[in-house]
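Thread: quick sanity check before group meeting

JM: Hey all, I'm pulling together slides for Thursday and realized we never actually wrote out the predicted structure for the chain we discussed last week. Dropping the sequence here so it's in one place. If anyone has concerns about the input, flag it before I start.
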Amino acid sequence: MPTKTMKSKNLIIIILLSIQFCFGQKNSAYIEYGVKIYDDNGSFTKDKMFADTFLNAVKEANKLTFGLIISDKGSKFYEVNNGIEQNYEIGLAKIYANYMGIIYNIENDIIKESQLLGNNIFTKENKIENWILTTETKIIDSYICFKATNTYTVINPKGTFKYPVTAWYCPKLPYSYGPNGYGNLPGLILELQVRNVNFGIKKITLESDLQFNLEFLKTAKILTEEELNKKLDEFNNFEGK
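JM (edit): ok, ran it. Output follows.
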């Protein structure tokens, strides 16, 4: 017959095994973001020919929802299929929001899908660095968030342009990820402002069954920045004919 001492030891072993099992599980987190697009001091509507098109895209952007899955592999940022019609204005809204397809944040790399150039075509970038961390705070969805700033650089035939980036991240949510490939901060980004585009939190699920796989990397075409620019030039030349 088991003694009290044996029963106590067995109970301790069961408890330790249970703790080990619980901590061994790698649950995913799931976050949803909405997006809003602004006029940026009239710079997008000063040309009357394109003003109506831009304003329609701004209106349609309010219908978009994006998901962020975080797991031990990294993160996946993607458009959530919420049944909206994929019309011309929705397409423009995604372009204005600088969303060209699924974005993976894996180890030291950002892998971005380029739907504009075809299926299974991706580009690889380094993670966002050179954040300036501040002590400024604000409450977002009951979480205390800290402000971090950076710049977004655009290089085109007209020159080099730098636009402000503001991220509000939450150290209590220790995930160094965020919307549209941004991250590398000491906490989850709950709100992101890049020039005239704002991604804001809609829902946070810290215990999620959602996962993603990286099998596509075995067959995906990963373009260098030079190859991407060449492809975009070819696309623009073709569109202009």
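AS: nice. Helices lie at 4-24, 48-61, 88-96, 225-239. The chain has one domain: 26-239.
JM: adding both to the slides.
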